[in-house]
Amino acid sequence: MDMLAKDCVECGKCTALCQFLAQTGESPARIAGRGASVTEAFSCSLCGACEAVCPLGLSPRQLFACRREEAVRQGEFDSNEYRYLFPDRPNNVMNMYRRCYGVDYGDIENAGSGGTWFFPGCTLLTYSPGLTRAVFYRLQADVDCRGFWTACCGKPLRQLGLRPRAEALQGQLQEFLQQHNITRVITACPGCYYELEPVFQACNVSVRTVYEMLKLAPTDRNSKIKCTVHDACPDRFARRFGRQVRQALAQAGFSLREMQHSGAQAICCGSGGQLSHFRPDLTEQLVQARLAEARQSGADILIGYCLSCVLKLEGKAAMPVTHALNVLLAISEDFKGAKARAGQMLAGAAGERLWAEMMAE
């Protein structure tokens, strides 16, 4: 990060947008010059807003991401304490949730190898199974989607500073592609999309968003509803999801209202970088800042296209918060209360046994 220490002009644009950087009381140049602490590395949500507003294209985010990896390598941070998050372990928290609440897709039969497969992403397939199924069935009808893939993209491992482990998991995904002769993957999650696009393109497999593949008919049924869109951090630079979702919502009759910070400058919802596991206080500040902007927009409803964002915001909001696919496909919101159910799963003596099973080596 010598470039950040040397080239940052301390203009203050990133610290004005990022609550974490503002709280440090220092510029990225000074932090890079002295070296970021482990606590600072895991206080960054890795959202990329700093990079988006930097006039020189510098990336404090990368400074903190690299520091996470260094902390793991040097034994300064015990990532194994967070092994309940590891998607390459069978007893991770999402697998346990699905087992506890009977979320299962074993009845879905793939049409066979080759062609297009749907990759919903861990959060959607875990906490909103009804919507996940509805999207898959629509994709079967609209674009002859032949397969349903319940794997993880590996991003949680990368966020925890475990890049080699993430790359190993993604290597397994590439093997799966080749074994099943898959030629196109459709994702519903922006995190999965941007994580997997370069990985799958290396295998000559195209990656598409669900919004560009669904055949959505124009309607005026929502013509009296004003909505505002929360942009997910992974979409900050390419803006593929944000543009497609806004176009689809406008086609569905919604009147769009933008928040003060949207697109490249959108405020993180607080779920980025697994932040809530390290800085729940900062997560809450980000949630409240985002909800304040949503209220100020004058919208009737807040719509997200990342279910992690929706789950983070909907529990604290006075206004309705939902997923874009719920409103576009008119599907009921089965994700409501998912976070509370996750907490209940670990309550009491049964919860203690489940936690012990989850953390067992």
TrEMBL record:
A cellular-component GO term for this protein: plasma membrane
Domain 4Fe-4S ferredoxin-type: residue ranges: 34-64
Gene Ontology molecular function terms on file: 4 iron, 4 sulfur cluster binding; metal ion binding; oxidoreductase activity
UniProt keyword annotations, A-Z: 4Fe-4S, Iron, Iron-sulfur, Metal-binding, Oxidoreductase
Lineage top rank: taxon: Bacteria
Gene3D superfamilies: 3.30.70.20
Protein name, UniProt field: Lactate utilization protein A
Organism ancestry: Bacteria, Bacillati, Bacillota, Negativicutes, Selenomonadales
Gene: lutA_5
